[in-house]
Amino acid sequence: MSGFGAAQAAHFFCPGVLTAKRGLPAAEARACTPAPVAYLGQTSEEYEAEMTDYDYDLFVIGGGSGGVRAARIAATHGAQVGIAEEYRYGGTCVIRGCVPKKLFVYASKFSEEFEDAEGFGWSVGERTFSWQKLVAAKDQEITRLEGIYRRNLERTDVEVHDSRAVIEDAHTVRLLATGKTVTARYILIAVGASPNTDSGLPGVEHVITSNEAFHLAELPDRIVVAGGGYIAVEFAGIFNGLGVDTTLIYRGEEILRGFDGDLRTTVRQEMEKKGIRVILNETFSKIEKRADGTLAGHTKGGKVLEAGQIMFAIGRKPHTRDLGLEKAGVETDAMGAIKVNAASQTNVASIYAVGDVTNRANLTPVAIREGHAFADTVFGNKPWTVDHSLIATAVFSQPELGTVGLTQEEALLRTPNLDIYKSSFRPMKHTLSGRDEKMLMKMIVDADSQKVLGVHVVGPDAGELAQVLGITLQMGATKADFDRTIAVHPTAAEELVTMREPTEQLRG
Questions:
Q1: pLDDT tens digits, residue range 289-335?
Q2: Which of 161, 215, 388, 489 is catalytic?
Q3: For 374-383, what is each residue's pLDDT tens digit?
Q4: CA 416/CA 444 separation, integer angstroms
Q5: Both 216 and 182 in a single domain?
Q6: For residue 72, what is the domain's CATH number?
Q7: Active site includes 489?
Q8: Which domain, by its residues, includes 282?
Q9: What is the pTM of this model?
């Protein structure tokens, strides 16, 4: 029952909030209603007074990964569920995020694969690339995935509404497509986040974001990507690999803030080797659109960056504007993110939120687990919360980055005694391809307990490695556990179990 107080725990005894619509008499359904809970100032009597007949046990606003998972699991627990989505089911990840972006990453890597093949005896003839064909294939796959999301909802008898939905009060939602209002015992907000732009920047109306990048009519000859996070870095690699003259401009001293320092430097250096121009400690002062349709980005440092497109990837903001949160009294932070407790419950007892809209850990698998935990807790008599402390992550940069656990900088805040194991080497493939590209593996170990605190990888399939490494660190692996594991040879990953001597010993 981690994350719950006694009052909250008393709320979740019912095996399912079943309604007469699910085949139970109304009296029996009410008998299976969750017990009243006093939450953030609301008394049990006040909450119980609100218990009445509703159109739904649960209404979900947002048809992304977190919202869909919550709706499906709640329905399998017996709840009568409705869900509303104003755009397409699948959310940011499926429609205009990680799925299409990964497809574009695959496409962009072929330019190097063709070059590398010659080192292995292949003669590759004339090569051409069709942006339009790639976009069409991507669109076909996204349509297929959206259909799966819809069918999965329908199979669990979730009532689907193709409409924007806004909150009217703690139990009421308005569907803007029809003007109809519906009521629900619980409301779950899972509307995600949207790309941020600098609204005060002159000429910002001329830039694109990741949303538009997936639907460009044609590839530009030159592009400037503003930002240093994973979205900016990934798109810089995509455009560069597809033959676009690419510049990345970032206000900070190094890209990928929040990741381990050695990885940040390695990724940036390898990007530069691939031909990406990286400009640090710079920002735009204005964007100018010229008569021929091209853009000129003027920087505060006096540079003029000319391009066919300028893309902003400077962060994302919770998509809470005009959602009606203030009508229900739902609290948000300065960014607009919805404040929730460990159980994803807001300050309004009947309203919950999961995913990027809460700005906890903005990753699709996290949103899915948060939605699942919510449904199990509220409707399934299986209370649990999501552990956000150890999340394996991949950045599909070029080269790829995979990471799990603490960075060296974070680990030093926990303990001054660290053993650092680090290895940089040329992947076996490039001994014949001739490509000047290095791989980096780094392990951070608590010198006193020998527990592995973090593992970080830059190189081919780093994301795949991060998933497996996430399991080992979740189990509390020590350096000795790695050492006694027999290597798989020849692989790059064997380096993880053959690094015997620390490259650096830090002692407080």
A1: 999 999 999 999 999 999 999 999 999 999 999 999 999 999 999 99
A2: 489
A3: 999 999 999 9
A4: 12
A5: no
A6: 3.50.50.60
A7: yes
A8: 204-314
A9: 0.89
